[in-house]
Amino acid sequence: MIEAIVRASIERRHLVLCLMFLLMAAGYWHFQKLPIDAVPDITNVQVQINTEAPGYSPLEAEQRITFPVETALYGLPNLAYTRSLSRYGLSQVTVVFNEGTDIYHARNLIDERLSTIKSALPAGLEPEMGPIATGLGEIFSYTVAATDGALTGAGDRYTAMDLREIQDWIIKPQLAQVPGVVEINTIGGYDKQYHVQPQPMKLLEFGISLQQVLDALRSNNNNIGAGYIERNGQQLLVRSPGQLAAIEDIQRVVVGRYGTVPVTVADIAEVGIGRELRTGAATRDGRETVLGTAMMLMGENSRRVASDIAERLEQVRLSLPPGVVVETVYDRTTLVDKTIATVQKNLLEGALLVIAVLFLLLGNLRAALITAAVIPLSMLATITGMVRTGVSANLMSLGALDFGLIVDGAVIIVENCIRRLAQEQPANNARLPLRQRLDVVFSATTEVIRPSMFGVAIITVVYIPIFALTGVEGKMFHPMAATVVMALIAAMVLALTLVPAAVALFMSGRVKEKESPLISASKALYAPLLRLALRLRWAVMGTASALVLGCALLLTTLGSEFIPQLDEGDIALHAMRIPGTGLEQSVAMQEQVEKRLASFAEVDKVFAKIGTPEVATDPMPPNVADNFVMLKPRSAWPDPDRSKADLLQAMEASLRELPGNNYEFTQPIEMRFNELISGVRADLGIKVFGDDLAVLERTANDILAVVNAVPGAADARVEQVSGLPVLSVIPRRTTLARYGLSLDDLQSLVAAGIGGEEAGLIYEGDRRFKLMVRLPEADRRDIDNLAFLPVSLPGGDYVPLSEVADLSLAPAPAQISRENGKRRIVVTANVRERDLGGFVADVRQRIASEVAVPPGYWLEYGGTFEQLESATARLTLVVPLTLAIIIGLLIMALSSVRDALVIFTGVPLALTGGVLALWLRDMPLSISAGVGFIALSGVAVLNGLVMVSFIRDLWQGGKPLQEAVIEGALTRLRPVLMTALVASLGFVPMALNTGTGAEVQRPLATVVIGGIISSTLLTLVVLPVLYQWLHRREPAR
Amino acid sequence: MKSQHTLPCIILCLSLLCPLLVQAQHSHGEGGHSHADNRQTAPDSHADDSPSRGHDQDDHDVEAHSDGDSVSLTPDIVRESGIAIRIAGPGSIERHISVYGRLVTPPDQVAQTRARFPGLIRDIRVNVGDAVERNQLLAVIESNESLNSYELRAPIAAVVQARNGSIGELTGDAPLFTLVDSSKLWAELKIFPSQRFEVAPGQDVHVNHTGHIHDSTIASVTPATEGQPYVLARVKLTNSLGDMAPGDMVSAQIDAEKVSVALVVESAALQTLEDRQVVFVQDGDVFTAREVDAGRSDGRFTEITAGLAQGENYVVENSYLLKAELLKSGAEHAH
């Protein structure tokens, strides 16, 4: 079949070339649609259901909202698990679906379930699903600020509230229209509200209750349309406007009567513009600000969306009042551009090097160009494949592409064609007739097609273990493997079709095989070397084995790192304070932190989000701040060579001097991923499930004690759940009854008085603002005098709050976490200097015997160890299987177990070079390096295959073994050198690059280069020796 | 024959590959550790060089208190953080109770004058709103029986609040004049049961009438009319400006307790550290959380009965930062 394809391609060479144009067009078209991002998306398929519940404490939020919502989700198809968080004023349920679930379908199902429980939720609360975005969604952030001395229309200085109003009503509506933007999330400033603040004494004086004030405001703020009437043929619309429009209108609302005199709002209350009770704040460079973040719709092209937003923002600027400035503080385009530039540079330089090498070694520019043409074509085909299979272009997916490796098949074919054409040439010293040329090309192609096909197949097969990875690792590396495999297949198809066709078409001139001086020199060097090696075969094999063993030992000393850190260029850090820290206190502490950070010369901008934004995509308590530190370009640093690690260290040291903060350094995208994935990140996590928080906490602490006693345990800790100070107003029921008050009267007074209650909306054109009734700031903040707050009695009299309620200040749960519908507390521990499996078994056993878990409570073991166990289990199955497949393929290719094994020895020999290269460059063993080893095994096998099959052909052709080995080895020197050189040179730019994202590619490239050097040397020397040794007793066939 | 060579070959290959595989899986594990380590140990690993000698130890460990509750900060940081220091010393605690009530006219300042003998009003000298002196002539009435005229005079110096009758009319049963002297008023403050034991005659009161504070004392505490749950504390007020009127609502602060105590701190200095009340005491660069017994408090100052000595420097403003520093190892971002 293969021969038929090659034959057809050669015969229909023009058609093949036309098809190539089609391929290019398709590739270009798909390139426009290719989602480009910096890093692979590792977010799972999840939907966040946020319910804002102003005033609800964690316990109430859990009981009233989280529980019904969770219960409603039971039995959703493809549901993996649910987890939830109940905090002050917020319930967030995160629903995680199995991989591959259609998010829109899932959201539809959730929506349906949610609509059925609306009635079970407290009135006025509305569960909402979070934006359809992934961890890569936060692509653009900007701050809104006023220049010094800028004045509002009313002649005042801009306040945080004014800026927030501009953000909400001028900027946000415009940006939200940008295609691909799913949400503009705002944090910082204050939502403008109209506040009616009744004086308790005035209320008493006029005998008016808070409820009356609320009722009066609610029933005096409406426009009504009253249909139409026809008059003299004209239609008149009827309406009765009554909406409150200004503070004066509110003041004039009548709330009751005192004797015969109407009492207005103005008589009893202050009316003014007030601040919301906010849950989040934003700071920038040590000052409070308003921060807007654009979230990108899942699956969009972040680069395009971000640049569209930036463009739109330019227009928005024109519409802003003078003195108000919007500044971009984070733009994903920068990172994506940098990443793409890195990849592009690597690919381009690699390709150029490959062309140069081909030209040098083949000595034929046309042949070099034909081979090189495979590079862009297979790239375009890969892009088509990526778009079709939904793989996004990023550092990981494009990072492992080495076109040197990919064109290996083509190189071998072209080389053989050239050789054979040149061989044919001298015979008649003129142009070859077309028919003959085509035949030569065909036979030359088919001569090497088998080994190169098998080689490519083997390289493809070695990527299989990567597909066995699951979870985060899987998401990071699957695209890489998928892309490489697609590129290899594309290149293989091209090698079968385009390459012979093009050779047949373009190599029409006189092909003279000018043996390039490089090759002649190599051959001159190689021939004696090979002879010597054949004579000293024991020494050679001994050295090789020693080398392999030595490197295996060396390997164990290498450090290791699991997933490489993609350097995003910018820094993110959590600044954490103790639970219960107030927002204003947090802001004050944050300002200190930012001043410190901004004092670094390398820092361009610092901004932070504290607490929860408007849309609770990241529900942080007020004591936690997400800091973003944007660095200047390196050229602007005082010392451009300063390493980032050093800078981080200096920052941390400086920040540690500030009291009361704890820090966790990370990077913007990484931070977002962590927030979304949010699993247990310690080695071992013991989840305690149950009902009573106190019992849970006690059990968790018991477990902690046991875990701490197990040898090897480190950093064991219990999840913090309590510590939120709560002031409880506990009603005295009998006393209430005595005064004729109901529980509800009291509670609504406390809620409205301290928290505030919404009494309607005030419209200003499009803008709408809440009308709130709340006690004056002085009264509601004064905890000491809260006991004296007068509670109105039905008869117009009053009673102090302390008379009908007890006030108590006590810590309460700061948050309640649940998983799969049950409360849980997690005990986490890491393991040091001990094997994880044994540790876990030990812990399990000791907990079972020493901790009394009360009935109704149960434990679950999870954590990284689980992933490790499953990954180990998979890999122990898949890796040997892959090796078996490789050997099987080799046996198929050579029909000889012995030859297959000879070739297979190339793998460990190749790996030695990789290990040595890593060791020389002082790099840890990582998955990236692992992928390098995988690619390397493929190349090694390919080289070996080409050589062995050639030797064997010669030997079977009747030559004595020794001669066959030497001649075969010498003949194959050029292709082996060529494939090795193109593959390793293709990776050189990657190995040396220091740009954004290079840290992922560097280990890979290092391994491949080192490995190919050793593999080539060893293929050329050890392989012939082994072959000869193994076949020494066999008669010539 | 063949297998003789093939076998060692396989063994060689596999033995070479095995370490690689093992290492690959091992690296998996190691990586997991290091990744997790970075996250988990960040607070602790720096405990040594950070100013905090904090709560790494078990909280129940008694000894930990002696040296486990200190934070040292350089003067620069103290300034930057806005940590303010005061010296502990004697002071007074004034505990207030907030109450509400209404102004009433004391009974001895209201006079309802009637015609002693029914008769014809011959003359009236005053009108509503007039201020009258004591013994000032109000009206002249001709008795029906004796047909003699007699004078009706003001029993007190007051203001005429009401007048029932005009010249030529006959007097009825109703009082002819209502005289009210509002130069002194009573504030009747409602004292509810929970406050009753704290209120006694003689205590100082600050009555707030539409923003003006009038200082006085509680004159008496009497039960209200039957059936009401509260008692009334009466406070005498002088209405020198005449801006107060009976029936006005007032709020009042009663100095329930006013004691001089040997040692007070500002209440803002008190922090709770794991169920203990502490004050941060400064000694050079070292700030130590000192457990104290807090006594009476008026919201602004709090009496300290044990744990602190006079003359010690304690942190008032931003003492929360110190608490936060001590407890910060517990500060984490739970997702």
TrEMBL record, chain A:
Lineage: Bacteria, Pseudomonadati, Pseudomonadota, Gammaproteobacteria, Cellvibrionales
UniProt keyword Glycoprotein present: no
Protein name: CusA/CzcA family heavy metal efflux RND transporter
Keyword terms: Cell membrane, Membrane, Transmembrane, Transmembrane helix, Transport
Organism, scientific name: Parahaliea aestuarii
A cellular component annotation (GO) from this entry: plasma membrane
Family note: Belongs to the resistance-nodulation-cell division (RND) (TC 2.A.6) family.
Bilayer disposition of the protein: Multi-pass membrane protein
Gene Ontology MF terms: monoatomic cation transmembrane transporter activity; xenobiotic transmembrane transporter activity
From TrEMBL, chain B:
Region (Disordered): 27-74
SUPFAM superfamilies registered for this protein in UniProt: Single hybrid motif
Domain CzcB-like C-terminal circularly permuted SH3-like: 264-323
Domain of life: Bacteria
One Pfam match: CzcB_C
Gene3D superfamilies in alphabetical order: 2.40.420.20, 2.40.50.100
GO biological process assignments: copper ion export; plasma membrane copper ion transport
Composition-biased stretches (Basic and acidic residues): 27-38, 45-68
Keywords: Signal, Transport
Record-level GO cellular component terms: cell envelope
Residues covered by the CzcB-like barrel-sandwich hybrid domain: 110-181
Extent of the signal sequence: 1-24
Protein name per its UniProtKB record: HlyD family efflux transporter periplasmic adaptor subunit
Organism of this sequence: Parahaliea aestuarii
